[in-house]
Amino acid sequence: MFSKALSAAVNGIDGTIVSVEADVSDGLPIFDLVGYLGSEVREARERVRISLKNSGYKLPAKRITINLSPADLRKEGTAFDLPIAVAILTAFGYIPQENLEKTLFIGEMSLNGEINKVNGVLPIVYTAYRLGFERCIVPIDNGKEGAAVQGIDVYGVKNLQETVKLLNNDCILEPYFIHKEDLAYGDEADNLDFSDVTGQELTKRAIEIAASGMHNILMVGPPGAGKTMLAKRIPTIMPVLTFEESLEISKVYSVAGLLNNSRSLIQKRPFRSPHHTITTAALAGGGRTPLPGEISLAHFGVLFLDELPEFNSNTIETLRQPLEENEVTIARVQGTYRYPADFMLVAAMNPCSCGYYPDRNKCGCSPNQVKRYLGKISRPLLDRIDICIEVLQVNYKELENHKLAETSENIRARVMGARDIQLSRYKDEKFYFNSQLTPKTINQYCKLGKKEKILLEKAFTKMNLTARAYHRILKVSRTIADLDGCEVIKEKHLSEAICYRSLDKKYWED
Amino acid sequence: MSDNMTKKEYWFWLCNLEQIGIKKIQAVLDFYGTPEQAYLDNGRGLEQISVLTASDKEIMLKSKESERIQENYAKLKDKGIYFVTKEEDGYPSRLHNIYNPPFALYIKGALPREDRISIAVVGARNCTYYGRETARHLSGKLAEAGVQIISGLARGIDGYAHEGAIAAGGSTYGIEGCSVDICYPKENFNIYMEMQEKGGIISEYGPGRHPKACNFPMRNRLISGMSDGILVIEARERSGSLITADLGLEQGKNVYSIPGRVQDCCSVGCNNLIKMGAKMVTGPEDILEDYGIFYKDCKNQIKKIDKLLETKEKIVYACLSSFPKHMNEIGGETNLSVMELSEILMNLELKNYIRQIRKNYYVYISET
């Protein structure tokens, strides 16, 4: 007797359908599993055999062969336990084969027949939906997570008996359902708001611009100036997540095993702030079977690197490719994995090792020490940071002055305005934000008037700017003009952009 | 033992012995009279000099290889180093008047001219923007007026003083705490090279001597000794520059000091000097008048700010000083938005009224 149940494996953040075929024939009673299996999958044999017995199903002494196809794809993880069990039961006639049509199974089994939580349910359910499946049977703890995908019935099952009953239509089980409208987007729960930070007008403005055009930003300043505090509040001024964005982020989190029933969907922009001792694999993603790293967990959100010079330089260098391509590719023997990594990089650092330069009353670092400290940051990385600002310690007067601080909501409104302009301008392009402009498209979208050209030329010679700095200034000035609701870039936009220009090499050496 | 060495070569031998410093050389000379006598003596006389230890004596005896001494002496010339002893006419006369003058000097370039005024400019290594600009500006102005600028080629104020003098086309001399063929610190290599053309590098240490901490206070006595006045720019409460100033006082030189703000720890030493009676200097004329040099006042040439700038630019310009101010502070004082402010600052910078010395920190460019 032959039977077939469908399941899926996770590859990157996409699912690949795997069909689990079972055959029962006469011969020596052997239970065999084939199909390029990882050790977790091979162990499924014992788990499935015992849980079938403990669930009350008698297996006649026959030769059972299971094949997981495609046989050239490496199968990892424990999610195949349930489809194997279902395929065997179908082969023995407990479930009619036609009841398995357009149904996808995932779940790990315990010896008593219960079905346990697995990782990566969301991308698998999403793949199933795209391929026209009608229902997915997942562990009960993954039910809500899977239900985030609309247009497919997701059933959470407790144990094997319940699954069999469901398949034989012996019991009625309601599929999980999430109302899109019920999802609360936003971050009110955190109580973070830009108005918490007093003073720092320049920094706030720079952050607003950075968030509008998705520019990467570097803050340089003494300890206690509020760099971390400001960075934490950046997600509050970015537009609220759309459902599609939320689904894509959730897929990454699902693969990483960071979702559960109480948090079935990521509903606020991620803010990831890894410690500077982080390893390359943890930052970019990796491991024997690769898992998404911090940069992918910060997808559509903010990756905050505090104390940038303290990070291992090799680790930081891995950021280069993701910053260009908005995704990270990890190659392993078994295959190549792609994880999305479209994040805004926010970095913070001290100006010198004691942190107080150029305040000579506090800083005793020699010019050489300062230079060495700043030299720890690699040029290629700096080249990918459009905006750089020096943050000043807040003085008492500013602390007292509460009234001026703007709320995140106001700022967010402006940011969204600027983003709308960009989206409509780039509707025919393959990118969405000013920060993604290439030198060629800069010429097309950042046209300057006569007066502006003269100003930029003057600044260029006076400040010893490089060609890279020139392009960055144009990109940032484009965003400033968008924030201003201005179609053309004016002198004031340019001069503000020059003020945020990134650190030129010459600049450090003064 | 060959004795076809010249007088200078005997001096070169005596001044280049390891472990043998000024005091021991003095003792040797007191006993023998001349280096030649000391060299030619078979060593019996050395026994009678009590300050010399056994190892000193051994070094002295072992080093008597005339061929090597002559070879090393010839190498000096190849390197363009000039060797002058205390007995010769070329030796700076100012040094005859100080305590413990060196027996010989090594010079790359030239020695300061005797007929012109020399001013030593000394100060902190880790200086502020204020100190840097003052050092550059004042030494430039002094050099223009014909004053020779003497300093120690160190990081910070010393280097900036040399730089200012070179930029103004004046002559400047650096006194090193190591031998003249070594540039210490390396950052000042450009100044080091240029100074050999427009002045000189001077040291009392022979070729190949590397900088040692204990050499620097010794060097300071030469800085003050070779100049007529000492100008201290930015010294912390306990600074090496104050040693130079003290030495200068002992040697009977004028001490000048640049005042700093009360809270600035970089200027505490300077302000203390003023309290103790050093002359406060706010412009080159304050120094030049003491030496009878007339200084042409150029204050009339200050840009007429009022006419050239717009109202808002004037407001911004007015709140800047020579102490770096962050954009946030300027914004707080002028109540201008970041966008407005950045445009104004940009314009002022392009018009050469202000300068951004570090990211988002501004100072005005002073003309006096």
Provide structural commentary.
The complex is a heterodimer of chains A (510) and B (368). With 510 residues, chain A is of the alpha/beta class. Chain A folds into three domains: 2-167, Ribosomal Protein S5, domain 2; 188-430, 3-Layer(aba) Sandwich (Rossmann fold), CATH 3.40.50; 437-498, no CATH class. Chain A is 38% helix and 17% strand. Chain A has helices at residues 39-54, 81-91, 121-130, 143-147, 160-167, 201-213, 227-232, 234-237, 243-255, 280-284, 294-297, 313-317, 320-325, 367-375, 379-382, 396-400, 408-425, 439-445, 450-462, 467-483, 491-499, 505-508, and strands spanning 2-11, 14-25, 31-34, 63-69, 103-105, 108-109, 115-116, 135-139, 153-157, 217-220, 271-272, 285-286, 291-292, 302-306, 327-332, 335-340, 344-349, 387-390. In chain A, the strands form six sheets. Chain A has a five-stranded parallel β-sheet. In chain A, strands 1-2-4-3 form a four-stranded mixed β-sheet. In chain A, helix 6 (201-213) packs across helix 20. The longest helix of chain A is centred in the C-terminal third of the chain and has 18 residues, at 408-425. Chain B is of the alpha/beta class. Chain B has three domains: 1-78; 118-297, 3-Layer(aba) Sandwich (Rossmann fold); 305-364, Winged helix-like DNA-binding domain superfamily/Winged helix DNA-binding domain (Arc Repressor Mutant, subunit A, Orthogonal Bundle). Chain B is 42% helix and 14% strand. Chain B is built from 17 helices and twelve strands. Chain B has helices at residues 7-15, 22-32, 35-40, 54-62, 66-78, 93-96, 129-144, 157-167, 189-197, 215-225, 240-250, 268-275, 284-288, 305-308, 311-318, 327-334, 338-350, and strands spanning 81-85, 104-109, 118-123, 148-151, 172-175, 199-203, 229-233, 254-257, 279-280, 325-326, 354-358, 361-364. Chain B has a nine-stranded mixed β-sheet, sandwiched between helices. In chain B, strands 10-12-11 form a three-stranded antiparallel β-sheet. In chain B, helix 7 (129-144) packs parallel to helix 8 (157-167) and helix 10 (215-225) packs across helix 11. The model of chain B has no long low-confidence stretch (mean pLDDT 87). The A-B interface holds A 199-203, 205, 220, 358, 360-361, 363-368, 388-390, 392, 397-398, 455, 458-459, 462, 480, 491-492, 495-496, 498-499, 503, 507, 510 and B 125-129, 155-156, 187, 263-266, 324, 326-329, 331-332, 337-340, 342-343, 345-347, 349-350, 357-361.
